[in-house]
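## retry 2 of 3
previous attempt timed out at serialization; input unchanged, resubmitting
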Amino acid sequence: MRKLSLLLFAAAAAVFMIQAPLTEASRPQPVIWADCEMYDGIVTPATFEPNSDAFDELYVGSFRDGLNLISDAAPGYGDYNGGRWHKNVLKGSVDPGKYANACSVDDLDLSDFESTNDYFSCPMRPRRGNDDN
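## retry succeeded, writing output
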């Protein structure tokens, strides 16, 4: 009977953990370049209408320090839209090594990227130690 109770408790705990909302500390926090400054993204559940809400552009590739994301805006920029993004990915025909030292949208040839239908929310916050770049 004790084994059955422990098993039921473990099953209930697992269900709770799956259904419990993610805390900020447990959410994925991708590192994002913006004008050669690193930011931590905070993945949040959200939806928005790309035709009615403002968004920024996020570029996915292989960039400086092995990071995969470059933003065209960040907190403190006048045009930053709070972490609402439209994703653009490097075209398959482009050598990924072309941008190995890129850390700013200014380093990119935007024609090397293709637009996706992915729109999502991921606010950014400055990363500690940015002065080390």
